[in-house]
Amino acid sequence: MTTPTESAQKASLSTLAELLPFLKPYGRQFLLAGIALIVAACATLAVPYAFKQMIDLGFGGNGIKSAAHIDLYFLALFGVATVLAIATAARFYMVSWLGERVTADIRSAVYAHVVTQSPQFFETTQSGEVLSRLTTDTTLIQSVVGTSISMALRNVLLFGGGMVMLFITSVKLSAIILLALLVVVLPIVFFGRRVRKLSRDSQDRIADASAMASEILNAMPTVQAFTHEKIESNRFTSMIESAFGTAMRRIRARSLLTMIAIVLVFGAIVFVLWLGAHAVIKGTMTGGELGQFILYAAIVAGSIGALSEVLGEAQRAAGATERLLELLAEESPIQSPAVPKALPQQAQNGATLELKNLVFHYPSRPLSPALSQLSLNIRAGETVAVVGPSGAGKTTLFQMLLRLYDPQQGQILLDGVDITELDLHVLRNAIGIVPQDTVIFSANAMENIRYGRAGATDAEVIEAARLAAAHEFIERLPEGYQSFLGERGVRLSGGQRQRIAIARALLKNPPLLLLDEATSALDAESERLVQSALEAAMVGRTTLVIAHRLATVKRVDRIVVMEHGQIVEIGTHAELVAKNGLYASLAALQFGVHG
Ligand code: ADP
């Protein structure tokens, strides 16, 4: 990512042009908003002229005609106001609609893009930061699309039209006003730059703070166990204060900008009016003309003031847009191939798997390989246990199979097809995983199991739950399958969570099953239920299990022993115990087996 300061210099208003693809589908609405805008601006510009006619012809003093004129001009004035009211309401409606619509689209697009990112992205980007971009940054864009664009257009029209009418009214006075305006533009440009940079800084501060807050909120039990509440809230406060400081610098710069703009503009107008008043006294100008001139000058001054505000807003939004576009431009290193291959017709008893010379190191640790020169062939229907000390690379191996990361060297073949040649969804749909720590979503039991396959019927879900030995305990929950689980619902025990995970995997019915056994001990009853659920799950498919239990390793076809990212021994439990190598010592420690 670029540094904030550098990119803030470049995040000029032209960044906003990159929002165009999001505006494109709504051309018709923009056109309608534009028409309403132009009508409203014309009506505004007509008011001073109607005013002048009223003063000069209505109050102009030549007796009989005036009463009729007054009626007419008052009627016309009211007509203009009515048009103005309708056009303004229409503009407000259209433009607000566009703002909300486009923001909703951007939010969805960014979210849809973020959820396709590989784990690598989430290692370097905190989820709180992404959330802040989805909320704070998109709100800024909403203000631009929803109000600033229309404000800008309206005021450019008013400024242009007002200037033309000023010159028509009095060339000399207008020339003087124009000169004064040129003097006003310089400080606006100068401070505008400063505001733009400060705005991005302040958004960055907020994103930092929310990233930190979300991390801490996810770790509340730890925070409280270590009595870090005070420390954490102080840390958050100091970040918020720093954001406040940056925001204050921006606000000071903008206050100054507003003050200078108003003083200069009104100074110029008062001066010109003073000249105009003398012209009326001398008789070179009528009272109506001066009135008209005053009103046009007020419109022009108002439009300049509004434009400077809008410019500030737009600059903040340019910073926000830039940050969102950075997110959207983030390309996941793990992609489906352009022309994916199909998996061959599925064999009856699961998939075959070939790992050829895998070499992998995590992007954050280029020097220490997590897997080195790892090769392994697994037959269809085989059950293989992977064991080894912590850090041996067992979990990494699973991540390779799911293509959460790609190896730097080597190949993985699923049913003879290189997994990088498969569509990512085809690959991942062929794999069921039962992780060590099951994520339970805030939804009912039915939906939590249905996560395994979105289209599954209730009957299929219940069937999977039965096979996974989860049906009985779910039935006993207060509302059965409708019971709410997760953070705001029923808390499940470790064994129950695992059986939910197994039910999910069974529902998917994948040819390849990856099990990561829980390290924490279960009570005897849960242990028995989980084991029987796993046995059911392994039938008719190839299974790879990271094993921590004697019951599991005794039952598998082969045991693969890993250390330092390599396979050091392969065999059955009995063979490996007899060999008296790494497995034998691990087994003695982990399973209490003494060879
Ligand atoms: P195991 O599952 O056998 O305990 P892992 O596959 O989790 O081992 O880890 C293998 C090695 O890779 C370890 O040295 C670990 O520190 C490292 N590692 C695991 N995950 C990451 C990661 N996301 N980023 C960097 N290094 C990692």
| Alpha carbon gyration radius | 36 Å
CATH architectural category of the largest domain:
Up-down Bundle
Average pLDDT metric: 84
Estimated share of beta-strand residues: 5-15%
> How would the global form be characterised?
elongated
Ligand inventory: adenosine-5'-diphosphate
Q: Strand tally, please? A: 10
Number of helices: 20
Work out the oligomeric state of the chains in this entry: single chain
Going by CATH, what is the homologous superfamily of the largest domain? ABC transporter type 1, transmembrane domain
Major sheet: 6 strands, mixed
Show unreliable segments. 1-10
CATH topology call of the largest domain: ABC transporter transmembrane region fold
Instruction: Write out the strand line-up for the largest beta sheet, numbering strands in chain order.
Output: 6-7-8-3-9-10
**What percent of the residues sit in helical stretches (DSSP H or I)?**
55-70%
Which structural category fits the helices and strands?
A: alpha/beta
